[in-house]
Amino acid sequence: MDYSLYLGQLKYLIPEAIVLVFALAAMIVHLFAKINGRRAAGILSIIGLVAAGISLIYSPLAAGEIYSETLSVDQFALYFKIIFLISGILAILLSFKFFDVEKSEPGEAYYLILLSIVGMMFAVSSVDFISFYVSFELFAILSYILAGIFKKDKRSAEAGVKYFILGTLSSALMVLGMAILVGVSGSTTYTEIAAMLADGNSKIELTGMLLLFSGLFFKLALAPFHMWTPDVYEGAPTPLVVFLSTAPKAAVFAVIIRMIYVMFGGFEMQWQIIFQVIAVITMFWGNIAALTQKNIKRMMAYSSIAHAGYIMMGLAAFGTKGNMAMMFYLFVYLFMNAAAFGLILLVQKNNGFGEYIDDMRGFARKSPLMAGGIIVLLLSLTGIPPTAGFMGKYFLFTAVVEKGMYVLAVIGALNSVISLFYYFQIGRAMFMEEAGVVEIIKDKSYYARSVITVSVIVILVIGILPGTLTKFASLSSLIK
Amino acid sequence: MIPINQIIALGLIIFVIGLFGVLFRKNLMIILMAIELMLNGVNVIFAGIGYHMKSPVGSIFAIFVILMAVAEAAVGFALALSYFRQKKTYDLDEISELKG
After folding, report:
1. Which of A163, A181, A256, A479 could form a disulfide with A147 if both were Cys (CB 3.0 to 4.6 A apart)?
2. pLDDT in tens, B22-69
């Protein structure tokens, strides 16, 4: 064995190493800090994520696959790693505000977020079933803990248990699918399995692929595997939902894109149909169920199901265009979600106030500027110009139309119209109805406020000038 | 040498028993046991593959699956414990705080 080669390849993993080191440092700080000194662990975590982001820009990309062909550090992985880091930073900033309001600070959340980011960073790079499985479980298991982190809160404990049962069920299905594929090909690397799958006819291999994908679809909350989503998102602490609803989804989409690109190209006939059907069911189910919700967190859970359906359209139209559209949309969705949950945190009190649409009454009167920003956010979630959400949907629809799937594009547009009705329930409560008791607690540190402001600015800038992100996404969407 | 079909059939039977346990039982502890059963069914298949192909790949994968099963069990029992402290029961039918 040539160990010096492995040491030399360490330079490709510097960003992961930085996140890991800061996670361990935050763990030690949290261990020795007093109850009100736990904030230090959070600040340390943010510094670590920023440092990892900087090193990500300057770290070299590996030309081939490293570590015995298990990891591929390419531009594609880099794009998703940036998404994870931003998602972590936004979630930790919102957690500061949330923990202030709740008057209890489970500082474990900070380093658990960092560790699960490490898992995601490895998952999007991995091109081998074993390394993929281990890194997938690393972020999956930590996300169950994050959902149930408030041990004293009934809803959080319940959300953790539900997420755990359905999550492990899905990963067991996934690993069975892997067992079939490994058994057929006798190897665990994607490229060697691809060589065995090239003809794309065998029923056994198709079963393996479907089991693998159904496990991954659980994590993406696609219908009919979405049943856990509303309960978990409602029960889990709000700022951690921002993390759970963006980063793992982006990671799993990235994994699916890479698997299709490297392995399952031969099964195009089969997965194209399946993905189209799932996209349609998911969009309709998410949007229609969201119409009747009174709780904003629950509504956003159904909305995130619907958004996963939109992104799924890009997967059905797999190709350079489709991939670029998906990656663009995932980046934009991150900011839309952070701002939407930031709104809940902005008015939240520790008795559960702020989670219902009626709690927003009179918001525009109290803070007109903030309400204007929220309107931009709602436009973006619906997909109306001049916002980033519109650009994302535009790219998705053009990719779908270019593949000749006109029906799918029409259904997607129809669903955007449906979503208008429930998103603007929030807007109507803010502007039209006056007799509200809403109160924007002036937190002296402006965490929720600054996250919403930054997110809305990003949404507007990308909506008006999408050029840079488009170029970056289309550059990254080429795997090798 | 045991035929590969029989090993895979055994693994699938164990997996399906576990799957039914997760889907149809209501007691949290039994569900956790059923999840372990599913993963062990997959392990049998992996071990059989390695044995049949005379390659270490299957056994190595099985070791990693065992590793992840341990981590899942640790987290699962911790979550079950915090659930029990809130509800004083392991029965999932008591889940009522979150409708749906």
Report:
1. A163
2. 888 888 889 999 999 999 999 999 999 888 888 888 899 999 999 999
Pairwise CA distance, residues A342 & A98, whole Å: 10
Q: What is the Cα–Cα distance from A324 to A79, expressed in whole angstroms? A: 11
CB A250, CB A80: distance < 8 Å: yes
Average pLDDT, chain B: 86
How many domains in chain A?
Answer: 1
C-beta atoms of B22 and A158 within 8 A? no
In a domain, A450, yes or no: yes
Do B97 and A187 lie within an 8 Å CB cutoff? no
Instruction: List, in sequence order, every residue forming a beta bridge with A14; answer none if it has no partner.
Output: none
Instruction: Check CB contact of A115 with chain B, cutoff 8 Å.
Output: no
Please report whether residue A416 resides in a domain: yes
Q: What is the mean pLDDT of residues A126-151?
A: 91
- Give residue A480's pLDDT band: very low, low, confident or very high (50, 70, 90): low
Tell me whether residues B79 and A157 touch, CB distance under 8 A. yes
pLDDT at A385: 84
Residue A330: inside a domain: yes
ipTM for the whole predicted complex goes beyond 0.90: yes
Q: How many CB atoms lie within 10 A of CB B2?
A: 10
Owning domain of residue A419: 263-480
What residues form DSSP beta bridges with A71? A66, A126
CB contact at 8 A, A12 and A60? yes
Q: pLDDT at position B100, please?
A: 42
B69 to chain A, closest Cα gap in Å: 9
What value does the CA radius of gyration of chain A take, rounded to a whole number of Å?
22
Mapped onto helix, strand or coil, the DSSP state of residue A315 is helix
Contact A374, A294 (CB under 8 A): no
Instruction: Give a yes or no: residue A347 inside a domain.
Output: yes
The CA distance from A364 to the nearest CA of chain B, in Å, is 30
Q: Measuring CA to CA, which residue among A373, A101, A136, A145 is closest to residue A256?
A: A136
CB contact under 8 A, A161 and B85: no
Q: Is A444 on the interface with B (CB under 8 A)?
A: no
Nearest-CB residue to A159 (from B41, B58, B98): B98
Using alpha carbons only, give the angle A297, A298, A304 rounded to the nearest 5 degrees: 90
Decide if A366 touches B, using CB distance below 8 A: no
Q: How far is CA A445 from the centre of its chain?
A: 26
Q: Give the integer Cα–Cα distance in Å for A137 and A131.
A: 10
CA atoms within 13 A on the CB side of B97: 21
Contact A42, A22 (CB under 8 A): no
Our measurement of the distance from residue A32's CA atom to the centroid of its chain's CA atoms, rounded to an integer in Å, reads 32
Sorting pLDDT into bands at 50, 70 and 90, what band is A184?
confident
Structural domains of chain B, ranges and CATH numbers in brackets? 4-94 (1.10.287.3510)
Contact residues on chain A for B65, CB-CB shorter than 8 A: 133, 175
- Exposure string over A162-179, b if 16+ CB within 10 A, otherwise e: bbbbbbbbbbbbbbbbbb
**Averaged pLDDT for residues B8-21:** 93
